[in-house]
Amino acid sequence: MDGDEERRINEIRYVDGIEKAEHVQFPDRDEFWVRFTQSMNLRRLTRVANEYHYEVVKFGGLPSFLPSRLGELLWDGVSYVILRRIGFRGLFASFLGSEPDGVAKVVKDLHSSQDIFITSNEEGVKILYAYLGLNYSTPTPPQRPVGGIRPVVRTPSTPVRSTASPQGPLPPKTA
Questions:
Q1: Each residue of 20-79: pLDDT tens digit?
Q2: N or C: which end of the chain has fewer CB within 10 A?
Q3: Is residue 16 a part of any domain in this protein?
Q4: Pick from 50, 61, 40: which is nearest to 117 by CA?
Q5: Is residue 86 part of a domain?
Q6: Of 49, 29, 28, 35, nearest to 126 (Cα)?
Q7: In this structure, what DSSP letter does residue 50 have?
Q8: What is the pLDDT of residues 76-129, one digit of tens each?
């Protein structure tokens, strides 16, 4: 993500049908989560994803049919994944529960059955904004330090040897 999460949270928080928007940090990635009060309109989401040349693929069909206690152990609630392209083998694997790598996913909360839209990159944010009918603005670039102050980068010092001889400097000559 780009560090513009607070602005996005404030833009999305008061949209009709949104319960909560938040920035979730993990040790290896940052994600942007939006919880909806009603089920997402999958036809509209598919149409918006197609405009950006993405597909909405059903995921976890088989684990979702398991009893809820067993389903919670095997399935994390991901219902749909938004990705570029997928072949037949990928579709079959996603039905069995192998999650393909995509730009966003729609998760069904297993306790409240609310939809949660999760993305970890800008393409997913663009699709979310288009789905909500909001104008997407590019993230602001990081600010440079004020007053020409540059950060000091320290490198470990290494001893400098003379290039004249591999053994080191030559001893002084005597006359």
A1: 899 888 888 888 999 999 889 999 999 999 999 888 887 765 655 666 566 555 555 677
A2: C
A3: yes
A4: 40
A5: yes
A6: 49
A7: H
A8: 567 788 887 765 555 555 555 555 567 888 888 767 778 999 998 888 999 999
Give residue 29's identity as a one-letter amino acid code: R
Query: Count of domains in the chain?
Result: 1
Residue at 116 is within a domain: yes
- 149/35 Cα distance (integer angstroms): 42
Query: What type of residue is 21?
Result: A
- The answer to the question of residue 168 being in a domain is no
Instruction: Check the CA dihedral 128-93-38-30 and report its sign.
Output: negative
How many residues in total does the chain contain?
Answer: 175
Which structure tokens are listed for 40? 């997402």
Task: Return the C-alpha torsion angle 80, 85, 87, 92, nearest 10.
Answer: -10
Neighbours of 49 (CB within 10 A): 24
